[in-house]
Amino acid sequence: MNVEIRNLTKQFGDLTAVDDISLTIEAGEFLTLVGPSGCGKSTMLRCITGLEIPTSGSILFDGVDVTDKSPQERRVAMVFQNYALYPHMTGHRNMTFALEDEGIAQEEIDTRISETAEMLGIEDHLDKKPEELSGGQKQRVALGRSLVRNPDVILMDEPLSNLDAKLRIELRAELQKIHQDLGTTTVYVTHDQEEAMTMSDRIAVLNDGVIQQLSSPEDAYNRPVNRFVAEFIGSPSMNFFHCEQQSGTLTAGPFTFDVPGTLEGTPIELGVRPEDILLTSNPQQDRAHGTVNVFEHIGPYNIVYVNVSGVGEVAAQVPAGQYFEVGDEVALSVRNNRVHLFGGDGIALYNPPLPSGREETQSAQTRTDNY
Ligand SMILES: Nc1ncnc2c1ncn2[C@@H]1O[C@H](COP(=O)(O)OP(=O)(O)OP(=O)(O)O)[C@@H](O)[C@H]1O
Ligand SMILES: [Mg+2]
Questions:
Q1: Which end of the chain has the smaller Cβ count within 10 Å, N or C?
Q2: Are 330 and 324 in contact (CB under 8 A)?
Q3: Per-residue model confidence as pLDDT tens digits over 62-73
Q4: CATH class in words for 237-353
Q5: Whose CA is nearest to atom 2 of ligand 1?
Q6: Where are the domains of the chain?
Q7: Which of 10, 12, 18, 189 gets mutated to test ligand 1 (max ligand atoms within 8 A of its CB)?
Q8: Residue 191 CA, closest ligand 1 atom number
Q9: What is the pTM of this model?
Q10: What is residue 181's three-state secondary structure?
């Protein structure tokens, strides 16, 4: 089932929570709405569910206008952050409840419950009440309750954010697998950009009720359309430097770059991802240098924050095994001129070619040199 959102606006008094958004979620797609707190994600989801009446605009399921239909009539299932299970009912009862309401035969109910419980690995917990379940188990039951209804569309509002980090990553993978198996159109809300990046076919990055970018996660990361997206997607965030252009040269703090041939417009800010900042010890006079402020040991890679005079703090991602100590003097350079350029209005004027060389034909030699 595809979901078409046409010119959706939702106002609460003077506040415009969703501002004239149009977007089509394809049948079977996993689309994620991501953005900072208060940007309108939940409101948009609640409009799709039917829990909120839009101020203007319309919502169509497979071409049928459902804007005035109740949540039940829409055949959607919603999963919430706080599970929203009935506390006095067992897991089993929580899952069957809505089905009986829909008048589904007992045999069919039993089949659906056992299949879904197996898929979610909660067969042994169905007799327990929510208070006897861990957070992860509760969320699995809540998910099960949605899935047994065979909804046309599943809507999830930060379903993993009450769980600890390890469980979140585990369930994230399970949700992806379930989506691959069932192929149900899914709209997922999170403010966690990493979740959005790992799970989605496409992401819509929202700010102030407006979609900033609707694209594949890779494009949002590699080709942000503006400074907001560039800063929001990626952790740690892209480093930004004020920059000036003089004839063929861009100067940003201690760095200088050739102006890219395809640049249109005048950049005032230059962005570099932490993984494109290279650090070496033994700073030389003619290169950018600074002092290590913080060293974060992550494992597969490490993050180093370097204080660069005249620029401020710069985040660099260094390979596992490259260690620095606080106070170390280091030299900085930018990998292969991998800079993003932004104009005065924050619009991206230039993004570097994809690092994998997918777009352009790089020789194997060049790739090895750079990576
Ligand atoms: N029922 C309501 N009455 C008044 N204002 C509301 C109501 N619901 C949401 N808002 C406002 O609309 C804006 C968008 O809220 P929404 O809940 O959609 O944000 P969100 O992106 O889901 O944020 P979060 O990540 O914190 O959940 C916020 O400024 C919020 O205060
Ligand atoms: Mg919300």
A1: C
A2: yes
A3: 999 999 999 989
A4: mainly beta
A5: 12
A6: 3-222, 237-353
A7: 12
A8: 25
A9: 0.90
A10: helix
